[in-house]
Amino acid sequence: MKAIIFAGGEGKRLWPLSRTNSPKQFEQIIGNKSTIQMAVDRLTPEFHPKDIYISTVKKYKQVLITQLPQIPQQNFILEPEKKDVGPAVGLVIGILYKKFKDEPVVILWCDHLVKKPDIFKKIILTAGDLVSKDKNKLIFIGQKPRFASQNLGWIEFGDKIKTINGIDFFSLKSFKYRPDAAEANLFFKNKQYSWNLGYFVSTISFIYEQFMRFSPQIMVKVNKIANADMADFDNVLNQEYQQMPEISFDNAILEQLDPKNIYVVNEDIGWSDIGAWDSLKDALQKHQLENITQGSVLLSESRDNLVYNYDAKKTIVGLDLSEMVVINTKDVLLITKKSSSSKLKKLVNNLSKGDNQHLV
User: What GO biological process term is on the record, naming one (predicted)?
Assistant: First the structure.
């Protein structure tokens, strides 16, 4: 079985730690490891490093070599430029199809926290066995919702189809991306909805065939790349990838699939999105009023704050702070209300257009 971890995000919601030249997936957000290192670690030892592939942009190759020395460099699938997720998935699947078309594969994203890796891997391996026997299936791995999130996608699942190794597999009914507050509350109370993590298991051949059927404009380019001679591979990759359409994987493939080919797993794997400062605090806290800190930080009479200090020569001292995010890097000090974290992406976009674009 193969695992593909996608690590191409820009991480603007984790600015100023996450920057264009060193985005969030390569920074130490939890402890002393980056999220890409954590994503690889939680697959081992069940997955050998030779069976783990990393998809990201070419300019991050040296970071991958430094942070993931155990992964063979030929397993780094490097986009010459950033496109949407549709072309990125198509490229990896097209390259792997030549050698491993009948093997099961799990698609993962690196900017998450999974607190229950054992059940997570049990689901992956069980789903892998299932699709090995039924190669026309795609299995979504969902997280049992902990609250009525408006920032995540949701999956509505139907009847239980089968149980294998204690894992229940359900039929698919519908998808909903980022519902409003009323819808999110209904989904949470319904108990037939799962958070959509973007994780799924299928066979390489099934995903490849869906690309050929629903996004042939991508696969024409991908096949030229995959079939290029080694000596000319980079030139063909640069030329063909530049002409790829920008389209999300959901629009390109997932929304087109026949529901009868899809199963849903709804389990508690301890999953959290850590792609924004407020969601990072939610993931790490034991209770809401807890302060979450990293680096040299002293807080007094303060509650419900996240304070990260990446400057070893300075101590951050806070008094009477409440519901704040404070991030100190070598050249930027961010101070904001926790509730304003969602505005960071717009702020960073504005910075990139002005005199302060060096900070992005």
Answer: GDP-mannose biosynthetic process
Tokens read off for 281: 């605090």
Q: Does residue 62 sit in helix, strand or coil?
A: helix
* Kind of pairing between the strands at 2-6 and 52-57: parallel
pTM of the full predicted structure? 0.90
Q: What is the rounded distance in angstroms from the CA atom of residue 33 to the CA atom of residue 25?
A: 10
| Extended beta strands in 148-258, E state | 153-164, 167-177, 193-203
Note the pLDDT of residue 136.
92
N- to C-terminal Cα distance for the chain? 38
- Same domain for 191 and 152, yes or no, is yes
* Regions of the chain short of the pLDDT cut 70: none
Residue 195 · residue 114 · CB < 8 Å:
no
DSSP tag of 254: G
285 and 219 belong to one structural domain: no
- Give the torsion through C-alpha atoms of 122, 126, 128, 133, to 10 deg: 170
User: How many Å apart are CA 134 and CA 132, to the nearest integer?
Assistant: 6
Could you give the CA distance from residue 197 to residue 148 in angstroms, rounded to a whole number?
A: 15
Do residues 204 and 56 both lie within one domain?
yes
Structure confidence at residue 29 (pLDDT): 87
Helical segments of 75-203, H only: 85-100, 117-133, 181-190
What's the rounded Cα separation, in Å, for the pair 236 and 221?
Answer: 9
For 182-213, the pLDDT digits (tens) are 999 999 999 999 999 999 999 999 999 999 99
Instruction: Say yes or no: 253 and 316 in one domain.
Output: no
Give me the pLDDT at residue 300, please. 97
Angle at 278 between CA 320 and CA 249, to 5 degrees: 170
In angstroms, the CA 206 to CA 104 distance is: 9
Cis upstream peptide for 259 (omega within 30°): no
What pLDDT, on the 0 to 100 scale, is given for residue 142?
A: 96
Distance separating alpha carbons of residues 153 and 142, to the nearest angstrom: 10
- Cβ proximity of 14 and 29 under 8 Å: yes
User: Residue 267 corresponds to which tokens in the numbers above?
Assistant: 């389990």
Query: Is 56 found in the same domain as 176?
Result: yes
User: What is the maximum span of the chain, computed from C-alpha positions, in angstroms?
Assistant: 64
Which tokens belong to 81?
Answer: 């430029």
